[in-house]
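Proteins fold. Shown next:

***
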Amino acid sequence: MKAPARFNFVLVLIFLTAFCSYAYELVLANILSVLWGNVILQYTVTTGIYIAAMGAGAYSSPTKINAKKSFIWIEVLLAILAIISPVLFVYADVSFKSIAPLVSYSLISAIGFFSGMELPLLLRILDEEKTSTTDKDEKALFADYAGMFLAGLLFAFFLNRQFGSLQVNLYLAMANIALTLICGLTWGYRETSLRKLEFPAVAILFILITWSVITHSLIYEEQITRWIIVN
């Protein structure tokens, strides 16, 4: 893959990861608004915590280990957090009401924290690719903001209405893992270590998560809905 193609590939990654991460937060804010009411409060608090956690994640982004490996595993972790967070939100609210806000906001913070690491890692990868583009940081920021902007629009006007928050969450997690698999495959051609560990491991995770989502998505949604109704 030539330098311009590698640069464009990373820009696409920035756009898609920003889209997925922000959409996760919108899903979680929507679930909290169903559980606790006060839609404006839940969306405001969730977004505020998410942005603050992103700042902490960007500040804490690892600099002394392989950026591509770090990015791959952070994406895997975000996908897993996205899948389990709605379950933990509702279960905590049903069974442990006193600590439900702590559990919910901690999970939101975790997703925001790891999402904040994405852009610095991808900028490091751009530097490692030695692209000659002088405005790469500006283009990277534009791709990041555009991804979040489009996530907000699509979630509000199409995704949530068409599929519902829980289904959207599962589809995004699958897309996140698929994206990570593509990264392992693409970067693995140039880095042997990625071919030996990251690509096979992510491929197995992708198969397991995809199989679980396809076969258990209705059970997943019905169980969460039942808890909400009982609550």
